[in-house]
Specification:
Blueprint (H helix, E strand, L loop, with lengths): L2 H16 L4 H9 L5 H8 L6 E3 L22 E8 L2 E8 L10 H17 L3 E5 L10 H17 L5 E5 L2 E3 L4 H5 L2 E5 L4 E3 L3 H8 L5 H5 L1 H8 L4 E3 L2 H14 L38 H8 L6 E3 L7 E8 L2 E8 L10 H16 L4 E7 L6 H6 L1 H14 L4 E10 H6 L9 E4 L4 E3 L3 H8 L1 H6 L3 H17 L1 H6 L5 E2 L5 H12 L17
Parallel strand pairs: 3-4, 4-5, 5-7, 6-8, 7-9, 12-13, 13-14, 14-15, 14-16, 15-17
Antiparallel strand pairs: 1-2, 2-3, 10-11, 11-12
Length: 516
């Protein structure tokens, strides 16, 4: 065989690789409205930037007809490429090869590229489309999962890990995405569950369909497993690209700072009238966020889950910030179990990857009731104060209205080491609201008064002036300054210029024990 023949053989083998499980399998994939693994990679990365690794690996098993189904590359395509010019490591499951089932060979390939990503400090993106473990391989497939889960855990807090769900994901396959930082699901296409509808029907007698059990809406709004929901594959890949634009390459690198055309001193007068004077009236905290940060830069995370809290990324004079806020437009911004988990996880991610935090507080407290208490609101709420107390990145806080009791403490208050705390003139900082406090403190006087309603109003006004006013908190140093809402952007920009190179140290320890 001469050199020309050798080169031609390589070209032929490469062409076979692009066929995955074969032309018919590709047609079936396209008929479902789904792309192939390589098509997905091509749409995600910058044109011509993808370099594949281990394209010729095959499985080594023979049982149940596997000896007749050895396809080069097995059921996953792995390698590295660039997104917006920045390096990224990739793994894309190939459903056309034995349903994308997770095999020993797939584990070998994915683990190799994840090791390379950790070693080079590069984000890792996994495009998931698989029926789950390859049961024909028995313990070898399970051991492959173990290897991957261990690496996901070791990579956590070192490099960003993103899971994009573009098909089914069942059994052990859900735990690798569950260990990553962000999960993006696709409506009508992706499903995630430990056990499928048939197993549930057999074991419990419960009737449930795929979408209700583990569809995008279920995991985005109910379980909180999914951080983003896309309408189709192209949108899922677009979300992935946008998300990566806010993230640093690794935990030793700062997020990319962009040149901003937005005036850092811009003062939006509409903010001065945003918060209603009647504290029983609501407003949308996202309006404050979008007006304060760089125009069009706010990128909400977990938007459908626990809507009484808002978290996401935004840019402040070109610099990436993590934004956390209570949402008065939903349950008055109260903290419950789901909101606590949502906030704590986001704060810890931002701290792990050097993303400064800005918190907006308008919270009447923790949700009361037996459902919350028996569900563990104590341990879930404790996660927030743990996350903020643990975080060493620059931390800024703006109290827009209510900051009551334990909710005031956990939401980035001054003495859990928030660097700068600002309050708007509408801020009320107290152990409880004035009405509730007066009912407790002046119960006897009100019971004995000839005109209790008038006396109650006098006591409420006195309490608000003495304890609820932002100036009372500012007088004691619990608030660093009372500012006009329209001044917030300029003050936050100045604060970040001052705190950008903040250095902080913690007591030496292996790790803490976060409440679970």
């Amino acid at each position: 065989m001469d050199r020309r023949d050798l080169n031609e053989e390589l070209r032929r083998r490469r062409q076979e690789l692009y066929q995955g499980g074969g032309p018919q399998a590709l047609e079936r994939q396209h008929a479902k409205g789904k792309l192939s693994a390589r098509e997905r990679i091509e749409r995600l990365v910058d044109p011509g930037s993808f370099d594949e690794v281990d394209p010729y690996i095959t499985h080594r098993h023979s049982d149940f007809g596997l000896d007749e189904r050895r396809i080069p590359g097995d059921a996953v395509v792995v390698g590295f490429g660039r997104i917006d010019g920045r390096p990224v490591a990739l793994a894309a499951q190939d459903f056309t090869v034995i349903g994308g089932s997770f095999s020993e060979a797939q584990a070998q390939k994915v683990c190799k590229v994840l090791d390379l990503a950790c070693g080079s400090g590069t984000p890792f993106v996994s495009l998931n489309d698989s029926v789950g473990a390859r049961i024909q391989e028995g313990v070898w497939s399970l051991a492959g999962y173990s290897e991957l889960f261990w690496r996901n855990t070791q990579a956590s807090g070192v490099i960003p890990q993103i899971s994009v769900m573009l098909g089914p994901c069942a059994g052990g396959s859900v735990y690798s995405p569950g260990l990553t930082d962000f999960i993006i699901m696709t409506e009508g296409i992706s499903h995630m569950f430990i056990t499928g509808p048939e197993v549930i029907r057999t074991v419990t007698g419960e009737e449930v369909d795929f979408e209700t059990l583990g569809g995008a809406q279920a995991h985005a709004a109910v379980s909180g497993v999914a951080h983003f929901v896309a309408g189709d594959e192209d949108e899922a890949l677009a979300i992935t690209r946008r998300l990566l634009s806010y993230l640093p390459a690794n935990n030793a690198a700062p997020p990319a700072r962009l040149a901003s055309q937005d005036d850092p001193h811009r003062a939006d007068a509409a903010l001065d009238n945003l918060v209603p004077l009647d504290d029983s009236q609501s407003y949308d905290i996202r309006e404050a966020i979008t007006r304060i940060f760089d125009t069009g830069s706010f990128f909400e995370v977990h938007a459908r889950f626990a809507p009484n809290a808002v978290v996401g990324f935004a840019r402040l004079h070109g610099e990436v910030m993590g934004v956390v806020a209570n949402q008065p437009a939903w349950l008055a911004g109260v903290l419950d179990i789901d909101a606590s988990d949502k906030i704590a996880r986001f704060v810890r991610f931002c701290d792990a990857f050097n993303i400064p935090l800005v918190t907006f507080v308008d919270c009447p407290g923790f949700m009361p009731g037996t459902v919350q208490e028996h569900g563990g609101i104590i341990r879930h709420g404790a996660k927030i104060v743990y996350a903020y107390s643990e975080a060493t990145v620059p931390k800024l806080c703006v109290v827009t209205r209510k900051a009551y009791g334990g909710a005031y403490i956990v939401m980035s208050s001054k003495y859990i080491r928030t660097d700068l705390v600002y309050a708007w003139p509408t801020a009320e900082i107290a152990v409880l609201g004035a009405e509730g406090a007066v009912g407790i403190l002046h119960r006897r006087q009100l019971a004995e008064a000839e005109e209790p309603d008038q006396l109650r109003e006098e006591f409420i006004a006195e309490f608000r002036d003495k304890f609820g006013s932002p100036y009372a908190a500012a007088a004691s140093g619990h608030v660093d300054d009372v500012i006009l809402p329209s001044e917030t952007r300029a003050r936050l920009v100045a604060a970040m210029d001052f705190l950008r190179d903040k250095q902080a140290s913690s007591l030496p320890k292996k790790h803490g024990s976060i409440p679970l």
